[in-house]
């Protein structure tokens, strides 16, 4: 039996401005936090990323894959694959170079006008993340990022500006990328310049509150500007299994899961859940609610989007708490799963589990906006004399995950669409490497800065084209 995906299913790919655009100070763009993290934004557990005073030549993101100048070529490739949707982000510091100005940078606004027009030329709907790990550097250094209440107004002003500008060009919006990642990566996710070891739980959770209020206010403004806007939250999803059936492990897994689920709960239900209130109470954290915050939070999202790369286990047994190499949000490795080259455990069934969990909890439409395999790809010349990558490992990974999406749809889950992460090779967020490739399109650029920036189709390009053309019927169960 072939997979049955809905007829209007939104197939596509996903990127982030800071990982592919380059042109880091072209046409009036200001510096973002990404421009000073040459080794990536995730330093591993308990640490901070390397942060430089100013951008340095070894930062791959300064050029990225030169999408800023080559987007027409790249969008044409996406159209050839049959994309219905293209997820990208707006670089906040292109629109407001410092982040706190009153007037936007017109050159920055024009770039996204042209990008979205190019998408529409091929019938591709843009799905736009308003803030994707690229807080303007000035807001980080001057205000300590989202710890400061003033960022709520700066962000809402920025969001209102882009909503008004693109109200007839963009229908689908996401407020913050992987908003819950602030728990482990406060600089990358929240622009918080206070070192992680010095950041109090009080300040961290106040910053989270500010983001949640800003997100909700943005939903309200967006719906006023265009009632047809579909505005979603975006969370990093990671199923957490108990390592053993021991009830202590089950409770440990539940409590770890609560830390992540709180973000979706507040976005969808508009109130802080009881378990979150208990956590705050027991940790001596008092969230300062300004007048109107509780009311603002009630402006809930239209859909839930999420990334999915891996699952983890949790245990209450201190002797078994071995850190998983690539597990961003902690946890211990699952002995039943294999891992990618970067230590991310591969669990296709976890995606079906996540989809069912979200659906059972919220009954809101779901959108998988990141899923993919980072791997070292080898560019070869095939028998036809074409340069390509024989990336069967990526095809297998994506096939197996999409089969599980199909299973979730059979379970009755409402899934809007699926955008693979890094549909064209780009600079990794976690490590700032280009050798960790995700794309269907190979970009000739390397970690030493060498390369022509030429693009080549990988084997997975035509595979994904076929999946889209058949609406999932070509998938192998």
Protein described:
With 477 residues, the chain is α/β, with parallel strands linked by helices. It has one domain (10-469): Glycosidases (TIM Barrel). Helix content is 36%, strand content 13%. The chain has helices at 17-20, 67-81, 92-95, 106-121, 137-143, 150-165, 186-190, 201-225, 247-269, 274-282, 293-296, 348-362, 392-410, 459-469, and strands at 10-14, 85-89, 125-131, 172-176, 230-237, 240-242, 303-308, 312-314, 366-370, 380-381, 387-388, 415-421, 441-443, 455-457. The protein has an eight-stranded parallel β-barrel with strand order 1-2-3-4-5-7-9-12, surrounded by five helices. It has a two-stranded parallel sheet with strand order 6-8. It has a two-stranded antiparallel sheet with strand order 10-11. The longest helix is centred in the middle third of the chain and has 25 residues, at 201-225. It is globular and about 65 Å long. One of its GO terms (molecular function) is beta-glucosidase activity.
Strand order within the widest sheet?
Answer: 1-2-3-4-5-7-9-12
**Sheet with the most strands?**
8 strands, parallel, barrel
Q: In angstroms, what is the radius of gyration?
A: 21 Å
Shape: globular
Mean pLDDT, as a whole number?
95
CATH top level? Alpha Beta
Query: Uncertain runs with pLDDT below 50, 5 residues or more?
Result: none
- How many structural domains can be distinguished in the coordinates? 1
Give helix % range.
25-40%
Q: Mind telling me which CATH architecture this is?
A: Alpha-Beta Barrel
Calculate the terminal CA-CA distance, rounded to whole Å: 9 Å
Number of helices: 14
CATH T-level fold name: TIM Barrel
Protein name: Amygdalase
InterPro entries: GH (IPR017853), GH_1_N_CS (IPR033132), Glyco_hydro_1 (IPR001360), Glyco_hydro_1_AS (IPR018120)
Keywords: Glycosidase, Hydrolase
GO molecular function, one term: beta-glucosidase activity
């Amino acid at each position: 039996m072939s997979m049955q995906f809905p007829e209007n299913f939104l197939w596509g790919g996903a990127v982030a401005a800071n990982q592919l655009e380059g042109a880091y100070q072209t046409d009036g763009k200001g510096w973002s936090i990404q421009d000073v993290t040459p080794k990536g934004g995730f330093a591993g557990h308990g640490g901070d990323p390397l942060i430089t005073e100013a951008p340095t030549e070894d930062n791959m993101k300064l050029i990225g894959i030169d999408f800023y100048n080559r987007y027409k070529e790249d969008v044409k490739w996406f159209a050839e694959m049959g994309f219905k949707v293209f997820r990208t982000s707006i670089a906040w510091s292109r629109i407001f170079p410092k982040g706190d100005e009153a007037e936007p940078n017109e050159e920055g606004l024009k770039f996204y006008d042209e990008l979205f027009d190019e998408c529409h030329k091929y019938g591709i709907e843009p799905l736009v993340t308003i803030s994707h790990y690229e807080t303007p550097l000035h807001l980080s250094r001057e205000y300590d990022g989202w710890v400061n209440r003033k960022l709520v107004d700066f962000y809402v002003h920025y969001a209102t500006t882009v909503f008004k500008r693109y109200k007839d060009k963009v229908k689908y919006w996401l407020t913050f990328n992987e908003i819950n990642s602030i728990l482990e990566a406060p600089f990358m996710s929240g622009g918080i310049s206070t070192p992680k070891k010095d950041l109090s739980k009080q300040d961290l959770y106040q910053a989270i509150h500010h983001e949640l209020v800003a997100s909700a206010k943005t939903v309200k403004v967006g719906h006023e500007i265009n009632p047809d806007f579909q505005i979603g939250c975006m969370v990093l999803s990671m199923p957490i299994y108990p390592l053993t059936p021991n009830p202590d492990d089950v409770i440990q897994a539940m409590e770890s899961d609560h830390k992540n689920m709180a973000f979706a709960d507040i976005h969808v239900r508009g109130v802080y859940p009881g378990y979150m209130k208990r956590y705050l109470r027991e940790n001596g954290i008092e969230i300062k609610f300004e007048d109107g915050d509780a009311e603002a939070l009630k402006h809930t999202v239209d859909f839930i989007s999420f990334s999915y790369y891996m699952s983890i286990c949790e245990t209450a047994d201190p002797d078994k708490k071995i850190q998983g190499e690539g597990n961003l949000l902690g946890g211990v490795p699952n002995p039943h799963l294999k891992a990618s080259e970067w230590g991310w455990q591969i669990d296709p069934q976890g995606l079906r589990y996540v989809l069912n969990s979200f659906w059972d909890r919220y009954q809101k439409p779901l959108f998988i906006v990141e899923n993919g395999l980072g791997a070292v790809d080898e560019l070869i010349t095939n028998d036809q004399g074409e340069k390509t990558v024989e990336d069967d490992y990526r095809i297998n990974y994506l096939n197996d995950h999409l089969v599980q999406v199909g299973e979730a749809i059979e379970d009755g889950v409402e899934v809007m669409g699926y955008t693979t992460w890094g549909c064209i090779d780009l600079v990794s967020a976690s490590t700032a490497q280009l050798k960790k490739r995700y794309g269907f399109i190979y970009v000739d650029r390397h970690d030493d800065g060498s390369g022509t920036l030429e693009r080549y189709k990988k084997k997975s390009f035509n595979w994904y084209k076929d999946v889209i053309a058949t609406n999932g019927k070509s998938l192998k169960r």
